[in-house]
Input
Amino acid sequence: MTPTLAKAPHALTVVPAVGRSVVAAPAVLVFPGGGYAKQADHEAEPVAEWLASLGIHAFVLRYPVAPNRHPAPLAAAKEAMLWIREGAHGLSVDPERVGVLGFSAGGHLAATLSVQVATGDPALDTSGSVPDLSILCYPVISFVDSVHQGSVDNLAGAGAAGEVLHELSAELHVTAATPPAFLWHTADDESVPVSHSLAYAGALSRAGVSAELHVFPSGIHGIGLAAGTPGADKWTGLCAGWLRRLGWAV
Output
């Protein structure tokens, strides 16, 4: 039983699906990147509008960032997931098809949500807050290997204990119950190494969870929808195809 959340969570933007006013549609919760220090606007509403064009209700969460620490962003994400499933927003959402999409640090938030990292709040740490799929765009995954130090310091705090870093490393907590994922990264990303996506995809594969991974030869970190970046600009089409094969997109 999930808690009733009549009001929309703070800092949540709703972008309804195009052409799905009657039929219950899938929904995706979007987490912009920004190293847990800020929110990247180009990874927010423009991405939600792209999802809406595929017939998917999109919700953008501007989750807490520094000086807020873990579990504040994760708690906000779980609250938003539960609110979306409950339907207080008035949209016709299929509660069995609610996913997440995150960029960079937002990808880390999406991944930790997917592997059920706990907040310590039993009302939030429920099955309803676990997404049914994830889309991870040049995500931060590990807090123990090839780390993005800014994300680590902003979320866990400088000098965080080893057990905290282990807890926040999504690749270490993948199980057979982890939802399927679509991942993409660029091979020459100098901010968040491609090894992060490779580690998560590898962990999914070992657990028997379906995953689709695309590594493009070049592209700077933080390119969002990647218009104008040869190769990487194909990710939206590839992702749309993946969503259609799963029956989520029109």
User: Anything to note?
Assistant: The helical segments are 45-53, 72-86, 105-114, 149-156, 162-167, 195-206, 235-245. The longest helix spans residues 72-86. The two ends are 31 Å apart (CA to CA).
